[in-house]
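agent> Task received from the user: take the single chain below, predict its 3D structure, and emit structure tokens. No templates, no multimer pairing.
agent> Plan: (1) validate residues, (2) run structure prediction, (3) serialize to tokens, (4) report one or two observations.
agent> Step 1 OK, no nonstandard residues flagged.
tool_call: predict_structure(input=
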Amino acid sequence: MLIDQNLLLAQTINFILLLLLLYKLLYKPVRAFMDKRTAEIEGQIRSAEEGQKAAEALRLELEQQLKESRQQARQIVDEATRRAEEVQAKLIAEAKAEARAILDRAQKEIQLEKDKAWAELKQQVGELSVLLASKVIDESLDAAQHRHLIADTINQLGSLGKGHLQ
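)
tool_result: status=success, residues=166
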């Protein structure tokens, strides 16, 4: 088997030309298409990663906002509780002050009624004493003596009995 060198050279040149032609016509467009597709896929991957990072950042931000909202709600509840306690303490203090004022007024009224009753009692005892004394002595007193006896009796009752009523 003898191989013709010219044929071998021609086939080699044809093969090289075919490779160059395939490289020019097929390899470059296919390579460009593949590079473009690779770039698109890489862009989509980067976009997905960025979207995932943005979603994670948004999730973290929302968690922080939720935490702050809970903290604000807790502060609002604490403030409302503190204000309610202040109002309650104020109302209790006002009620106690009002109760003391009512008690003081009642004690003053009781003292006034006591003094009034004592004065009436002294007056009645004085009149009864004079009436009794006039009957005992069986003499009639004129108005001046009558008033003088009542005043003396009242003075004696005032110095003796006021300590007994209290």
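agent> Step 4: summary for the user.
The chain has two helices and no strands.
agent> Done.
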